[in-house]
Write a structure and sequence with these properties.
CATH topology: Rossmann fold
Structural class: alpha/beta
Number of strands: 7
CATH architecture: 3-Layer(aba) Sandwich
Shape: globular
Distance between the termini: 41 Å
Radius of gyration: 17 Å
Helix content: 40-55%
CATH class: Alpha Beta
Strand order of the largest sheet: 3-2-1-4-5-6-7
Largest sheet: 7 strands, parallel
Order of helices and strands: EHEHEHEHHEHHEHHE
Length: 245
Amino acid sequence: MQQKSILITGASRGIGAETARLFAREGYAVALNYNRSEKQALALAHQLQEEGYRVLPVRADVSDPVQVQKMVDIVLENFCQLDTLLCNAGVGAQGLFTDLTYDAWRTLFSVNLDGVFHCSQAVLPHFVHRKAGQIITVSSIWGMVGASCEVAYSASKAAVIGLTKALAKELGPSNIRVNCVAPGVIETEMNGHLSQEDLVALRDETPLGRMGTAHDVAETILFLASEKGRFYTGQVLSPNGGFVI
C-alpha cells in the first residue's frame, strides 16, 4: 500500500512544524518546506528521521514559481505520489495603513497569497491526473473579520479564503478537495511581537479563556486531510476558542 504523503510549506516552526510532527507520527511521508529558517527545518527533519519517520526537507521561496515547481518535482521524485498540500507559509506585519509602503504590501501578498497560487498550480497536474488529492490553506481569523493595524495581513488572508472557496468548486468534479484553516490567537513566534498586556487581553477575549496551541491547529488540519474529512470541501474551519463566532 502506497504511503500517504504531505507537502507542508513554512514547516520549520510554529504551526507548520507541529503539523509535520503530527502527520509523521500518523504514518505520512512528510516534505518539509523552508526558506530562510534552514537550521530549524533541518533540526526538525533530523529529529523525525531519528524517530524512524520518512521526512524530506526541501528549500524553496514560495513567492517564486520557479523554485516552487522545482520543489514539487523533488517531492514527487522522492515520494512518487503526493496526497496533500498544506499551504502554511506566511508572514505578518503590524502598523498603521497610512504608513504601509507598497513594497511591504507586496511582500505580504507575495508570500501569503501568491505562495498559495504557485504551490497549488504546481501540484494540480499531479492531482488532476490521479483524480485525487487535496489542498489545505492556512488563513487567519483576521482574514475573516479584519484586524486594526494589520490591514495588509488581513487582506492577504481574506484573499486566501476566497481562493479556497472558488478553487474547491472548480476542482470538486476532479475529486480534489480544497479547504481552509483559519486559526485564532495561537501561541507561536508570529505573535512574539505582541506585548504581555496584549496577549493577556486577547486571552481574556477568548471565551475558552486561553490562547490556542500549534497542536490545536495541527489536529484540525489532520481532520481535514483524513477520511473523516472526506465530505468537506470549500470550507473554513476556525480553531479559535470562540474568539470569532
